Amino acid sequence: MNISAKLAFWYENVKRDLHWRNSQDPYKIWISEIILQQTRVNQGIGYYERFISAYPDVFTLANADRDSVLKLWQGLGYYSRANNLHETSKHISGELKGNFPSAYDELIKLKGIGPYTAAAIASIAFNQPVAAIDGNIKRVISRIFLIPGDLNSNQVMKQIEVLSCSILDKINPGRHNQAMMELGAIICLPGNPKCIECPVNIHCSAFKENLVQEFPEKYLKKTVKERYFIYLILLSEDGKILIRKRKEGDIWKGLYEFPLIETSEKKSPEEMAELIFKNYSADMKITKITAGIVHALSHRRIITGFVHAVLPDKNSIQSGDAIWIDIVEFPGFAVSRLIDRYISREGF
Fold first, then answer.
1. pLDDT for 263-293, tens place per residue?
2. What is the pLDDT of residues 31-54, one digit of tens each?
3. 77: left (phi over 0), alpha (psi -120 to 50) or beta
4. Rounded CA separation 300/23 (Å)
5. Strand spans (E) along the chain
6. What pLDDT, on the 0 to 100 scale, is given for residue 220?
7. Which of 50, 284, 323, 348 is close enough to 309 for a disulfide, judged by CB 3.0 to 4.6 Å?
8. 204 & 247 share domain
């Protein structure tokens, strides 16, 4: 029995019961794959259920308000995913009349759909013989075939693509790709792989040569860049708060936040207060300063301070692109996980 046959038998007997696996609807497969990028399955299940409940098809998503989509996405991070989902849904519902492309070459042209997602949709929804390759699958292939080098390099990636195609079940590629994903997710783990339970360990060169812990080869991660934010949580005496929407070309595009000053270095609470007075209004009364909140993203660390203040007359400040809203309305606006966690813990 070859690798694909063993994988198929194993998968049908041990696969986790995930909602999106009971459908060949390309829309639902697309939503699930985008949610599961950079998100653990256990966390993603609830988001998937809520998303499909709110937007059961591509037309309802396309007609939804962007802010509502971002609010539903809140907490998942990588908000460009939600922005791209919304934009691509408009293209599919409009220009394509609601019809998903079935071919990999057409799917990959859609905004926010990369090689892995295009292959997953093409194979699972349309039975196209395309190998889907995500981080888990790259690890599996590198161990089975003892592939040295940086898995993210173009040269190594080409090797992995060829080898993934060589073991692909051409008759049922969707099941094969899902089996490979499952193998990488629950058996061929990065740190403590369960090699004895692996259905294809007899085919695995790393297992046979006792080199599992040596593959994939370790490479230095990209340098994490630090950014320094100072947020002003400004309340008016009539129960309003000042917020603004983040613009294009940066993290958290389209989300709401408090007025922000970004600095080139970390500031002390005294320096934060001085900057707030200088940039906004000397008439405000600062009531609280919280410094040193660290929020980690994939390649960034956001070092954040929050300055709480009260303004007697909200008309005395130049608010620019910010707007005043009632405090009770704030939970209805989509904000970053950084702000959501802070307000949940500290309040206004």
1. 999 999 999 999 988 888 768 899 999 999 9
2. 999 999 888 888 899 999 999 999
3. left
4. 37
5. 225-236, 240-245, 256-257, 260-263, 285-296, 300-311, 323-326
6. 65
7. 284
8. no
Is residue 124 a part of any domain in this protein?
A: yes
Q: Are residues 190 and 49 in the same domain?
A: yes
Q: Is residue 126 over pLDDT 70?
A: yes
- Please give the Cα distance from 278 to 95 (Å, whole number): 50
| 44 and 108 together in one domain | yes
Confidence at residue 221, expressed as pLDDT on a 0 to 100 scale:
66
Token pair of 66, please? 């962007």
Structure tokens, 44: 């993603």
Kindly give, in sequence order, each residue whose CB lies less than 8 Å from that of residue 191, ignoring residues fewer than 6 positions away. none
The string of DSSP letters for 65-85 reads: -HHHHHHHHTTS--THHHHHH
DSSP 113: -
Supply the pLDDT for residue 21. 85
Query: Which phi and psi angles does 336 have, rounded to 5°?
Result: -70, 160
Q: Which residues of 230-266 are buried (b: 16+ CB within 10 A; e: fewer)?
A: bbbbbbbeeebbbbebbeeeebbebbbbbbebeeeee
Q: Are 244 and 259 in contact (CB under 8 A)?
A: yes
Find how far residue 133's CA is from the centre of its chain.
17
Residues with catalytic roles? 33
C-alpha 157/C-alpha 196 separation (Å) is: 27
Pairing of strands 256-257, 240-245: antiparallel
pLDDT at 257: 96
Q: Give yes or no: residues 168 and 195 share one domain.
A: yes
